[in-house]
Amino acid sequence: MSEAGPKPLRRAYGRRLGRKLSARRRELLAETLPRLCLPSGAIAPAALFPEAADLWLEIGYGGGEHLAWQAERHPEIGFIGCELFQGGVASLVRHVDERGLANIRHAQDGHDVLERLPEAALGRCFLLFPDPWPKYRHWKRRFVRRESLDALARALRPGGEFRFASDDAELAAWTLMHLLAHPAFDWPARGVADWDRRPEDWPETRYERKAIAQGRHPIYLRFLRQG
Ligand SMILES: C[S@@+](CC[C@H](N)C(=O)[O-])C[C@H]1O[C@@H](n2cnc3c(N)ncnc32)[C@H](O)[C@@H]1O
Protein backbone atom coordinates (compact mmCIF):
# COMPACT_ATOMS: atom_id res chain seq x y z
CA MET A 1 0.00 0.00 0.00
CA SER A 2 1.37 3.44 -0.88
CA GLU A 3 1.48 6.37 1.54
CA ALA A 4 -1.51 7.82 -0.29
CA GLY A 5 -3.61 4.84 0.88
CA PRO A 6 -5.01 1.87 -1.01
CA LYS A 7 -5.48 2.21 -4.78
CA PRO A 8 -9.13 2.87 -5.60
CA LEU A 9 -10.96 -0.13 -7.12
CA ARG A 10 -11.34 1.55 -10.49
CA ARG A 11 -12.56 4.71 -12.12
CA ALA A 12 -16.26 5.30 -12.62
CA TYR A 13 -17.27 5.92 -16.23
CA GLY A 14 -20.42 7.60 -17.46
CA ARG A 15 -22.18 10.87 -18.06
CA ARG A 16 -22.56 13.08 -14.98
CA LEU A 17 -24.33 16.14 -16.39
CA GLY A 18 -27.24 16.35 -18.82
CA ARG A 19 -29.78 19.01 -19.65
CA LYS A 20 -29.99 21.95 -17.28
CA LEU A 21 -32.25 21.12 -14.32
CA SER A 22 -35.45 23.10 -13.76
CA ALA A 23 -35.43 25.74 -11.02
CA ARG A 24 -37.67 23.49 -8.86
CA ARG A 25 -35.31 20.52 -9.24
CA ARG A 26 -32.30 22.68 -8.38
CA GLU A 27 -34.12 23.96 -5.31
CA LEU A 28 -35.05 20.41 -4.22
CA LEU A 29 -31.46 19.27 -4.74
CA ALA A 30 -30.14 22.13 -2.65
CA GLU A 31 -32.68 21.52 0.13
CA THR A 32 -32.82 17.75 0.32
CA LEU A 33 -29.62 16.28 -1.12
CA PRO A 34 -27.30 17.41 1.72
CA ARG A 35 -29.24 15.31 4.24
CA LEU A 36 -29.26 12.29 1.91
CA CYS A 37 -25.54 12.30 1.15
CA LEU A 38 -23.45 9.60 2.70
CA PRO A 39 -20.74 11.04 4.98
CA SER A 40 -17.17 10.55 3.70
CA GLY A 41 -14.87 7.86 5.10
CA ALA A 42 -15.66 4.38 6.36
CA ILE A 43 -19.38 3.61 6.35
CA ALA A 44 -20.86 2.72 9.74
CA PRO A 45 -24.28 1.13 9.02
CA ALA A 46 -25.43 1.22 12.66
CA ALA A 47 -24.76 4.95 12.86
CA LEU A 48 -26.36 5.59 9.47
CA PHE A 49 -29.58 3.67 10.16
CA PRO A 50 -29.73 2.93 13.92
CA GLU A 51 -33.14 1.19 13.71
CA ALA A 52 -32.62 -0.76 10.49
CA ALA A 53 -32.81 -4.54 10.31
CA ASP A 54 -30.50 -4.69 7.28
CA LEU A 55 -28.65 -2.61 4.69
CA TRP A 56 -29.32 -2.88 0.92
CA LEU A 57 -27.37 -1.17 -1.85
CA GLU A 58 -28.42 -0.15 -5.36
CA ILE A 59 -25.63 0.75 -7.79
CA GLY A 60 -26.61 2.98 -10.73
CA TYR A 61 -30.17 3.71 -9.60
CA GLY A 62 -30.88 5.90 -12.65
CA GLY A 63 -34.10 7.82 -11.93
CA GLY A 64 -34.44 6.09 -8.54
CA GLU A 65 -37.83 4.46 -9.18
CA HIS A 66 -36.68 0.97 -8.14
CA LEU A 67 -34.81 2.30 -5.10
CA ALA A 68 -37.77 4.41 -3.93
CA TRP A 69 -40.18 1.48 -4.48
CA GLN A 70 -38.02 -0.85 -2.39
CA ALA A 71 -37.47 1.77 0.33
CA GLU A 72 -41.20 2.48 0.59
CA ARG A 73 -42.06 -1.23 0.88
CA HIS A 74 -39.24 -1.97 3.29
CA PRO A 75 -39.17 0.81 5.89
CA GLU A 76 -37.29 -1.57 8.21
CA ILE A 77 -34.31 -1.63 5.81
CA GLY A 78 -31.68 1.09 5.33
CA PHE A 79 -30.78 1.79 1.68
CA ILE A 80 -27.71 3.26 0.03
CA GLY A 81 -28.20 4.27 -3.60
CA CYS A 82 -25.33 5.21 -5.93
CA GLU A 83 -25.70 7.29 -9.06
CA LEU A 84 -23.28 9.45 -11.03
CA PHE A 85 -25.75 11.30 -13.27
CA GLN A 86 -27.06 14.54 -11.79
CA GLY A 87 -30.48 14.27 -13.51
CA GLY A 88 -30.96 10.83 -11.91
CA VAL A 89 -29.98 12.14 -8.49
CA ALA A 90 -32.51 14.98 -8.87
CA SER A 91 -35.18 12.42 -9.76
CA LEU A 92 -34.40 10.31 -6.67
CA VAL A 93 -34.56 13.44 -4.50
CA ARG A 94 -38.06 14.10 -5.87
CA HIS A 95 -39.17 10.54 -5.01
CA VAL A 96 -37.74 10.89 -1.49
CA ASP A 97 -39.44 14.24 -1.00
CA GLU A 98 -42.84 13.24 -2.41
CA ARG A 99 -43.02 9.94 -0.52
CA GLY A 100 -41.35 11.16 2.70
CA LEU A 101 -38.73 8.39 2.61
CA ALA A 102 -36.37 8.44 5.58
CA ASN A 103 -34.39 5.26 4.85
CA ILE A 104 -32.31 6.25 1.79
CA ARG A 105 -28.80 7.69 1.59
CA HIS A 106 -27.13 8.71 -1.67
CA ALA A 107 -23.53 8.44 -2.85
CA GLN A 108 -22.02 8.81 -6.31
CA ASP A 109 -19.73 5.93 -7.15
CA GLY A 110 -20.73 2.35 -6.42
CA HIS A 111 -17.11 1.12 -6.47
CA ASP A 112 -16.19 3.66 -3.84
CA VAL A 113 -19.13 2.65 -1.61
CA LEU A 114 -18.26 -1.06 -1.86
CA GLU A 115 -14.75 -0.27 -0.68
CA ARG A 116 -15.97 1.86 2.24
CA LEU A 117 -18.46 -0.69 3.57
CA PRO A 118 -17.46 -3.00 6.42
CA GLU A 119 -17.24 -6.70 5.68
CA ALA A 120 -20.59 -8.56 5.50
CA ALA A 121 -22.54 -5.30 5.92
CA LEU A 122 -25.03 -5.85 3.08
CA GLY A 123 -28.00 -8.16 2.80
CA ARG A 124 -28.70 -7.30 -0.82
CA CYS A 125 -27.17 -5.45 -3.76
CA PHE A 126 -28.96 -4.40 -6.97
CA LEU A 127 -27.25 -3.63 -10.28
CA LEU A 128 -30.06 -3.09 -12.78
CA PHE A 129 -29.40 -2.40 -16.44
CA PRO A 130 -25.81 -1.20 -16.03
CA ASP A 131 -24.19 0.47 -19.02
CA PRO A 132 -23.24 -2.38 -21.41
CA TRP A 133 -20.12 -0.72 -22.91
CA PRO A 134 -20.45 -2.93 -26.02
CA LYS A 135 -17.14 -1.99 -27.72
CA TYR A 136 -14.30 -4.36 -26.90
CA ARG A 137 -11.96 -1.48 -25.98
CA HIS A 138 -14.54 -0.31 -23.39
CA TRP A 139 -15.13 -3.67 -21.70
CA LYS A 140 -12.81 -2.60 -18.89
CA ARG A 141 -15.42 0.03 -18.01
CA ARG A 142 -18.10 -2.57 -17.22
CA PHE A 143 -19.13 -2.65 -13.59
CA VAL A 144 -19.03 -6.44 -13.39
CA ARG A 145 -15.39 -7.47 -13.28
CA ARG A 146 -13.44 -9.74 -10.99
CA GLU A 147 -12.18 -6.92 -8.75
CA SER A 148 -15.66 -5.39 -8.30
CA LEU A 149 -17.05 -8.86 -7.53
CA ASP A 150 -14.30 -9.39 -4.93
CA ALA A 151 -15.36 -6.11 -3.29
CA LEU A 152 -19.02 -7.10 -3.49
CA ALA A 153 -18.32 -10.55 -2.04
CA ARG A 154 -16.57 -8.90 0.90
CA ALA A 155 -19.42 -6.45 1.52
CA LEU A 156 -22.28 -8.98 1.19
CA ARG A 157 -23.02 -11.24 4.12
CA PRO A 158 -23.24 -15.02 3.58
CA GLY A 159 -26.70 -15.75 2.18
CA GLY A 160 -26.95 -12.18 0.88
CA GLU A 161 -28.32 -11.62 -2.62
CA PHE A 162 -26.95 -9.87 -5.69
CA ARG A 163 -29.62 -8.94 -8.26
CA PHE A 164 -28.65 -8.05 -11.80
CA ALA A 165 -30.70 -7.29 -14.91
CA SER A 166 -29.82 -6.43 -18.49
CA ASP A 167 -31.48 -6.22 -21.89
CA ASP A 168 -28.08 -6.83 -23.48
CA ALA A 169 -27.61 -10.57 -24.01
CA GLU A 170 -23.85 -10.25 -24.37
CA LEU A 171 -23.53 -8.34 -21.08
CA ALA A 172 -25.84 -10.84 -19.34
CA ALA A 173 -23.65 -13.71 -20.59
CA TRP A 174 -20.51 -11.83 -19.48
CA THR A 175 -22.03 -11.30 -16.03
CA LEU A 176 -23.11 -14.91 -15.68
CA MET A 177 -19.66 -16.08 -16.74
CA HIS A 178 -17.95 -13.82 -14.16
CA LEU A 179 -20.31 -14.80 -11.34
CA LEU A 180 -20.10 -18.53 -12.09
CA ALA A 181 -16.30 -18.26 -12.11
CA HIS A 182 -16.26 -16.47 -8.74
CA PRO A 183 -15.87 -18.78 -5.74
CA ALA A 184 -18.05 -16.63 -3.45
CA PHE A 185 -21.26 -16.71 -5.51
CA ASP A 186 -23.90 -19.30 -6.35
CA TRP A 187 -26.52 -19.04 -9.09
CA PRO A 188 -29.49 -20.97 -7.71
CA ALA A 189 -31.59 -20.83 -10.93
CA ARG A 190 -33.21 -24.14 -11.84
CA GLY A 191 -35.14 -23.23 -14.99
CA VAL A 192 -36.02 -20.53 -17.51
CA ALA A 193 -38.56 -18.94 -15.16
CA ASP A 194 -35.68 -18.08 -12.82
CA TRP A 195 -34.05 -15.67 -15.27
CA ASP A 196 -36.60 -14.96 -17.99
CA ARG A 197 -39.10 -12.93 -16.00
CA ARG A 198 -38.91 -10.25 -13.35
CA PRO A 199 -39.81 -11.46 -9.85
CA GLU A 200 -42.82 -9.87 -8.09
CA ASP A 201 -40.77 -7.85 -5.60
CA TRP A 202 -38.74 -6.21 -8.33
CA PRO A 203 -40.42 -3.22 -10.02
CA GLU A 204 -39.74 -2.17 -13.57
CA THR A 205 -37.09 0.52 -14.04
CA ARG A 206 -37.21 3.39 -16.50
CA TYR A 207 -34.44 1.94 -18.64
CA GLU A 208 -36.15 -1.46 -18.66
CA ARG A 209 -39.45 0.04 -19.83
CA LYS A 210 -37.67 1.71 -22.76
CA ALA A 211 -35.81 -1.51 -23.66
CA ILE A 212 -39.02 -3.55 -23.69
CA ALA A 213 -40.81 -0.87 -25.76
CA GLN A 214 -37.96 -1.16 -28.28
CA GLY A 215 -38.47 -4.94 -28.50
CA ARG A 216 -35.58 -6.13 -26.32
CA HIS A 217 -36.06 -8.88 -23.78
CA PRO A 218 -34.41 -8.40 -20.38
CA ILE A 219 -32.67 -11.13 -18.41
CA TYR A 220 -32.93 -11.18 -14.60
CA LEU A 221 -30.20 -12.86 -12.56
CA ARG A 222 -30.13 -13.50 -8.80
CA PHE A 223 -26.96 -14.73 -7.14
CA LEU A 224 -26.37 -15.75 -3.54
CA ARG A 225 -23.27 -15.02 -1.50
CA GLN A 226 -22.00 -18.38 -0.32
CA GLY A 227 -21.96 -19.04 3.43
C1 LIG B 1 -28.28 2.37 -18.23
S1 LIG B 1 -28.51 3.27 -16.78
C2 LIG B 1 -29.71 2.31 -15.89
C3 LIG B 1 -30.31 3.09 -14.75
C4 LIG B 1 -31.36 2.33 -13.92
N1 LIG B 1 -30.76 1.25 -13.16
C5 LIG B 1 -32.50 1.82 -14.78
O1 LIG B 1 -32.59 0.58 -14.94
O2 LIG B 1 -33.30 2.65 -15.26
C6 LIG B 1 -27.01 2.92 -15.86
C7 LIG B 1 -26.76 3.94 -14.75
O3 LIG B 1 -25.63 3.55 -13.97
C8 LIG B 1 -24.96 4.73 -13.55
N2 LIG B 1 -23.59 4.36 -13.19
C9 LIG B 1 -22.60 3.93 -14.03
N3 LIG B 1 -21.48 3.67 -13.33
C10 LIG B 1 -21.77 3.93 -12.03
C11 LIG B 1 -21.01 3.86 -10.83
N4 LIG B 1 -19.71 3.49 -10.84
N5 LIG B 1 -21.61 4.18 -9.67
C12 LIG B 1 -22.91 4.59 -9.67
N6 LIG B 1 -23.67 4.69 -10.77
C13 LIG B 1 -23.11 4.36 -11.93
C14 LIG B 1 -25.07 5.66 -14.74
O4 LIG B 1 -24.92 7.00 -14.37
C15 LIG B 1 -26.48 5.34 -15.26
O5 LIG B 1 -27.44 6.21 -14.72
User: Which class do the helix and strand fractions yield?
Assistant: alpha/beta
Please provide the ordered H/E string of secondary-structure elements: HHEHEHEHEHEHEHHE
How many domains, as an integer? Answer: 1
Radius of gyration: 17 Å
In brief:
This protein has 227 residues and is α/β, with parallel strands linked by helices.
Task: Please describe what this structure looks like.
This protein has 227 residues and is of the alpha/beta class. The protein has a single domain (23-225), classed as Rossmann fold (3-Layer(aba) Sandwich), CATH 3.40.50. 37% of the residues lie in helices and 19% in strands. The protein contains 9 helices and 7 strands; from the N terminus they run ααβαβαβαβαβαβααβ. It has helices spanning 23-36, 45-48, 65-73, 86-99, 110-116, 146-155, 169-181, 193-196, 206-213; strands at residues 54-59, 77-82, 104-107, 122-128, 156-166, 185-186, 219-225. It has a 7-stranded mixed β-sheet with strand order 3-2-1-4-5-7-6, sandwiched between helices. Strand 4, helix 6 (146-155) and strand 5 form a beta-alpha-beta unit. Helix 1 crosses helix 4 and helix 3 (65-73) runs parallel beside helix 4. The longest helix has 14 residues, at 23-36. The radius of gyration is 17 Å and the shape is globular. The protein starts with 22 loop residues before the first helix and ends with a strand. The structure holds S-adenosylmethionine. Residues 12, 14, 59-62, 82-85, 88, 109-111, 128-131, 205-208 line the site of S-adenosylmethionine. The site of S-adenosylmethionine has 22 residues, from helix 5 and helix 9.
